[in-house]
Amino acid sequence: MPDEKPLVGVVMGSTSDADVMKGCGDILRELGIPYEMKVLSAHRTPDQTRDYAMSATGRGIEVIIAGAGWAAHLAGFIAANTILPVIGIPIDSSPLKGNDALLSTVQMPPGIPVATVAVGSGGAKNAAVLAAQILALKYKPISEKLQGYRRALTQKAMEMADAWTEAD
Prior knowledge:
Strand content: 5-15%
Structural class: alpha/beta
Shape: globular
Number of strands: 5
CATH architecture: 3-Layer(aba) Sandwich
Largest sheet: 5 strands, parallel
Strand order of the largest sheet: 2-1-3-4-5
Number of domains: 1
CATH topology: Rossmann fold
């Protein structure tokens, strides 16, 4: 990796999102992808969030992952301020169990896309894998790690299936 500078920016709307976003960082570390993690809000810290999005390319960031709940429009706000790929994670922190966050993340106007993954912790992990897939197009070491990760998933699934079948 180039100088081990962060290639992925991971942003969450609040410290209360950290438990969900932890899985994202875990997968990025497992795949050897340098990243940075920040707490920024489209509503509480709009100037800082805009500055982050606009400066990301110049700092070497190639993909941004943004997680937020409560219909917060963090991923869309960031996508409006950069041409980098943005992956949105709807977080299930509101009384609407993430449905509000899902709609605010996935329903973007034409021309300002946000790749949106599943609601919650599974989505946070998938966001990291999707970022790895994007980066794997350019970085062979990431491609190789990602292929190994997928082989390990297959092996684990086969072992679990075998164990279940033997239990019958």
